[in-house]
Structure formats: structure tokens, C-alpha cells
Amino acid sequence: MNPDKSCLWGPIRTVHTISFDDGRTSKTQNRTPSYSETITETIEDGSYVFIFLDAKRNWIRKVIPGQKFHSNKGIIDFDDLIGRPYGLKVKSHSGIVFQVHKPSQTDIQISMGRNTQIIYPKDASTILIEAGICAGSRVVESGTGSGSLTWILSRAVGPTGHVYTYEIREDMYDGARKNLEKHASMDRITMHHKDIIEGIEESDVDAVVLDLATPWLLEDEVHQALKPSHFLASYSPTIEQVMKTCKALGESGRWGMIKTLEILMREIMVRENKTRPTTWMVGHTGYMTFARSLANDEHSVKVSS
């Protein structure tokens, strides 16, 4: 088994036994470093920082020596951040306290969507799990949009996987490329500036993720591109789109385990003696339809009479 492609068991770890002169032994193992072990823990020249004031006022900025962060709550000198750890509390020149963190996946994903609609983290995480997207996966995506989901997918597939993303609109394609070049490892992403309805160039892929107005038109193309028993994930904002997609999948007879999910997320406001849900929540963002590709008829088992 190739450990990079094992979603179920994870990386294989080799155990070594070390013998000491006094007869003691110790076991060590080669393992894949965790995310927290591989990131830079101090703010450096060129680092990206997440500057947080409150839920509505926060920014991702690149730290450049000699430059400053400006807001209506004051100025922060980047030179004061370089060499210091993330998680700082910093006062602006006007005395307002900001937090300075390393941007998380959610921080970056939301920031990419400030000029366009994105698939929210609650839905993106569901797509990854339900579609079995993990290290080593080869994934086709359309449309690219802001590049937000492309970035999440590229992190999930890791250096041994690949994401092939399709976008027909030139403005979206250019904007996504700019976002991805800033945050993603581009060696694991291939960007196609074309309409995916004209054809999927890849074959034997592990998953196809669609965020399109008419996903039902791609039923045949997607089935040809997918390995048998692998997943299509289709994201749609309206139930009419879901109905047409499920109808096309069902009538083709080439898909199994068809289901549609909607994820609602509600934050809890924790206060002593008055803990309760917040008065607002992230409600409907979109419907996610999943289906598993069936093998072609020539591979079906026929029961003898």
C-alpha cells in the first residue's frame, strides 16, 4: 500500500529500536511532521498575519519591513512584529488593542470571498469528508471562482495529489490565480481557462467537485472522468438545481448512493448565567449533492438462473 494514498489508515510509520550501553532500549518512529511542527512560529519578513479586532473587523496582511498597517483604529508598525511570535496583543498608535495571529484555513478562505461568493468552511469540510478527498487524491473542480475551495482541496490532497480546476470567466480565472499564488502550492494545482462542458481533460480521478449553474449537464462527462466507486460532489444554492441534478443522476443508472445535505451552523454565546445561542446564525448557504459512480455494465456481476 502506498502510504501517501491511504486515506483510511494514514501514513505508515517505521519503528526503530535504539540500544544503549547500559542495556536500555528505546523505540523511535519516523513520522510525518504535524502541521503545527512545519509552520514558522515567529513573524518574519514576508509572513502573512491575521490582524483581528472583532468578528467584523479583521484583515490578512503581508509583513514588509518599513511598512505599516493602517485602519481607523490606529496604525501598527510591521517592524514591531518581525521576530516575535504569533498570538500577540498589539496596541496601535491610538491605544486600541489588536490580536495578531497566523492566518488559519478559515481566515484565508473567508478573505478570498470578500469580492465574490465562496463555499463556506462548514460546507467545504463536508465535501472533503463525504467525497473521500485526502492525501494523494486527484480532484477535478469547476468553477474555480475565487480559488477558495481550490486552495482547500490542494491542502487536502497534499504534495502527492493534484487539483485540476476549470473556470470559464476570465476575470474570475485571473482573480483566482492571484489568490492561489499568494496562499497555495501551485505545483499541485492545474488551472484550465475553459468551459468544463467542453470536456474534462483528466481521467481516472478520485473525485469531481462542481459549483455550477447547470451541473446536471455534466453527468456523462463526470462519470467518464471518475474511477468506479468514487464521488461526485455538486454544490447548488437552489433546490430546483438539486432536483434536476438528482433526476439526471438517477435516470442515467450509472450512480449509486445519491444524497443531498444541507449544513446549518449556529454559534453559542457563552456568558455566566446567560449562555444561549446567538441571535444570528450561518443558515442556508447551499445544498450539497453526493453520488458514487457505478462500474460500466460490462463489469456487472450477472446471476445465473
Q: Helix content range of the residues, please? A: 10-25%
The rough form would be described as: globular
Rg value: 23 Å
Q: Mean pLDDT, as a whole number?
A: 86
The fold-level CATH name of the largest domain is Rossmann fold
Terminal Cα separation, in Å?
38 Å
CATH class of the largest domain: Alpha Beta
Strand order of the largest sheet: 11-10-9-12-13-17-14
The share of residues in extended strands comes to: 25-35%
> Helix and strand succession?
EEHEEEEEEHHEHEHEEHEHEEEE
Reconstruct the topology from this structure.
Blueprint: E1 14-19, E2 25-30, H1 35-38, E3 48-52, E4 58-62, E5 68-71, E6 74-77, E7 88-91, E8 97-101, H2 105-112, H3 121-130, E9 138-142, H4 148-157, E10 162-166, H5 170-183, E11 189-192, E12 205-210, H6 219-225, E13 226-236, H7 239-252, E14 255-261, E15 268-269, E16 276-277, E17 287-293
Parallel strand pairs: 9-10, 9-12, 10-11, 12-13
Antiparallel strand pairs: 1-2, 3-4, 3-8, 5-6, 7-8, 13-17, 14-17, 15-16
Helix pairs in contact: 2-4
Task: Describe this structure in a few short sentences.
Helix content is 22%, strand content 29%. By secondary structure, the chain is an alpha/beta fold. Helix 2 (105-112) packs antiparallel against helix 4.
Structure commentary:
The protein is of the alpha/beta class and 305 residues long. It folds into 2 domains: 12-103, Vcp-like ATPase, Chain A, domain 2; 106-299, 3-Layer(aba) Sandwich (Rossmann fold). Helix content is 22%, strand content 29%. The strands form 5 sheets. Strands 11-10-9-12-13-17-14 form a 7-stranded mixed β-sheet, sandwiched between helices. The longest helix is centred in the middle third of the chain and has 14 residues, at 170-183. The radius of gyration is 23 Å and the shape is globular. The chain starts with 13 loop residues before the first strand and ends in a 12-residue tail after the last strand.
